[in-house]
Amino acid sequence: MFGTVTIALFSILFTIWILRRRKHFSSFLKLGIPGPKPNLLFGNMWEMYWKGPLPCLQDWIDQYGNVFIYFFGLRPVLVVMDLDLLKQIQIKDFMDFVDRPGLFELDPPREPGEPINLILIFLRGTHWKRVRGVLTPSFTTLKLKTMAQTMDETIDDFIRNVDEYSRKENCLDVYKLFQAMSMDVIIKCALGVDAHVQKNPMEHELLNHADVILSTSIQSLPFLIHMSFPAFGWLMKIIRTLEFKFQNKGSDPILDLVEVCRQVMKSRAADPGVCSNIYFSTNFVTPTYTNKTLKTSFDIVAYYATTSSALGYTTHLLVQHPEVQEKIRQEVDELVENEGENLDYVSVHKLRYLDQVFSESLRVYPPVYLFVNREANTDITYGSIQIPKGMAVQVPVYHLHHNPTIWSDPEKFDPERFSPDNHNRSPLAWQPFGYGPRNCIGMRFAQLEAKMALARMVQKYFLRPCEKTEKKLTIRTGSAIINPANGIFVKFVRRNSLK
Length: 499
Prior knowledge:
The protein is an alpha+beta fold.
């Protein structure tokens, strides 16, 4: 009797669950926007899990066009690659899309007071506007000129590492050196101290912690289950923590990274003079060490990952295109010879062709491929397209940059696309840093470091392929960032060795 009642009750509850699930999906399908049919269990995550996010999105774009809906687990996402519609969403009606949706969170839904809400990219509404306003002065021209000196000193260490390691190894993974350099730059500028990451660039603990944190992938079972069954978020968080500890030799990499930042902030509070060269505003959000260190730790990881990947991709393209590399070298040599200038903030901005090359590299390989997202805070309609309040809007940056209707021969690396003569293209077609008022606040900072490092590198070395150099680069797709899966292997030949 008891067994029969239990089975009947379970059947009723399961039927209710199925009906609610169907109603959830069908309510968005009624909007009349095309898109792949959602699976009752996983939305459209199952297809993304098996194919990978980049190929999967490309299949949907080919089938459904520049505007369509898919379900990121239970969450409906409106993908927009139409430039006119993007202009409305990202610029004209920005205040209706001021917030970012929490698409990539493995944690349970965030409460307003949680520390993670203190991170700029997760802030919402007026809180975001206030914090953005406080942070913006950290990236003025005057501040960037000052930070360029710190960057230059850090790039000196990078060049010394290239010298040292290239003597030992004919084929050097320069991506690891870029990671160490980028980590040193952001820690010096954000925390005002030298972490000496470049003294151990191949296995420094900060690099190991950051790599483990960034290892979360859309193509992981915990991610798939959590996005499809949010009620199990607490369990997936435990599993993720155990995975992190396993990869990080028994300790939680997030807590380890936060602890490093906490110790630095304690020392800074005890003796402010020790960190007099800090440039970023990091103390405005909250008086507690826990919250400040969480925010700073996330900033460090995000900047380190994107900048080092961008440098790696550009170096790979320069190896594959020696004529482009030589043109940059000639431009740098001419600047230094004619004007007798060091490569600082002012002089780097005179390297127009280098800027074209870096911009084209970011088009071909945008490090952030799925994080340019917005959330509608009101019901809004554009022609036949209805966007209900709460719906996530996603800009598929990688596919936007490879759209043949916008970019001719998009798979070709061609820096001339960004020459002064080519301004007949919508600025929204290029979004490695997003676009509009909520674009990446550190864009100019990242561009400055990257161009200074690239200019110094090609000024001193010829970059050649070696036996481990990939002709077609293998890409690893994380939850929001793409990076080189197998490193960037280069043979460095000192210029004076050929004379």
